[in-house]
Specification:
The protein is an alpha/beta fold and about 280 residues long. It folds into two domains: about 70 residues, 434 Repressor (Amino-terminal Domain) (Orthogonal Bundle); about 190 residues, Endonuclease, Chain A (2-Layer Sandwich), CATH 3.30.870. Helices cover about 45% and strands about 10% of the residues. It contains twelve helices and six strands. Strands 3-2-1-4-5-6 form a six-stranded mixed beta sheet, with helices on both faces. Helix 2 crosses helix 3, helix 7 packs across helix 8 and helix 10 packs antiparallel against helix 12.
């Protein structure tokens, strides 16, 4: 089977984790190729996510790399093989790859933590608020493109309503609640939606009020997605031009610390809801 030119985020992550195992074993790609009886380009394509890898191959590579972490090995095995086509694939021809990777990451997460400073979290946006946000895109999108993006954003929210919903924890700065995007009616409906969603058992929403010293680095939204094992956690950062995905352990630890600090500076859930209600009354 020829290498894929468009590996998904999940395929890339599987390859990256196999590369980390090889590097921890102190083996070069050339040495690994000799160990498994393949050419070096096969190892390179596996590690870039461009070549499919079977469950048996993952087990063989784990043994060859002296990896004894059974939980990690089984998590990697679960990422192999031909997977069902995700709903996000229908957008592949028209959307930036980063958006598809974001939807895939959220879908496979076991829990998600989010911090936002000036935006509403995408998974908690109403249709009208999502539309008002997307209309601010630069360069401007055509009306049908806006609706296409709105549809995609709302479909992402399905992970909060499935039979086993994802645990979702959000820290919102008060600034995001007062942006006024879309006008008073849209704002009030959006704030009411936040309150309603925060009352679900699997959703935690807290607010950092004005006057608190904690703030997100550079104000960009942070999404921390937990994998089936800690080694498969991922951080996604929204930038002006794309989604950036991080999986280095030092960065994962740093962003966990940032989120912990922000949650520690936020109001408790009940007081957060009270603040949201007051802001809605003022809108």
């Amino acid at each position: 089977m020829p290498p894929s030119s468009t590996p998904t985020l999940r395929q890339q992550r599987l390859g990256a984790e196999l590369r980390k195992l090889r590097e921890r074993a102190g083996l070069s790609a050339t040495a690994a190729a000799a160990l498994f009886g393949v050419n070096q380009s096969r190892i390179s394509n596996i590690e870039s996510g461009r070549h499919p890898v079977s469950a048996d191959r993952v087990h063989a590579m784990a043994r060859g790399y002296n990896c004894f972490g059974e939980d990690l090995i089984e998590a990697l095995v679960a990422m192999t093989g031909k997977r069902p086509r995700g709903w996000w694939e229908e957008y592949r021809e028209t959307f930036p790859v980063g958006l598809l990777d974001l939807a895939e990451m959220e879908h496979h997460s076991t829990a998600i933590r989010v911090a936002v400073a000036i935006h509403m979290p995408g998974l908690l946006q109403t249709v009208d608020h999502a539309r008002a946000t997307i209309c601010q895109s630069v360069p401007a999108l055509r009306p049908h493109e806006v609706e296409h993006r709105v549809s995609f954003r709302i479909k992402r929210q399905a992970i909060l309503f499935r039979d086993e919903p994802v645990s979702y924890s959000v820290v919102i700065h008060e600034a995001a609640l007062r942006m006024g995007l879309g006008g008073p009616d849209t704002v009030r409906a959006q704030l009411a939606h936040l309150i309603e969603m925060s009352e679900h058992d699997h959703i935690s929403l807290v607010v950092i009020p004005f006057g608190s010293a904690s703030f997100t680095p550079s104000g960009q939204p942070i999404t921390y997605a937990y994998g089936s094992v800690p080694q498969l956690d991922t951080v996604e950062l929204d930038t002006d031009h794309s989604c950036e995905f991080l999986d280095a352990e030092a960065l994962l630890q740093w962003y966990r610390s940032v989120l912990d600090r922000m949650e520690g500076s936020a109001l408790k859930p009940d007081r957060s809801r009270d603040l949201i209600r007051r802001i809605a009354q003022e809108s």
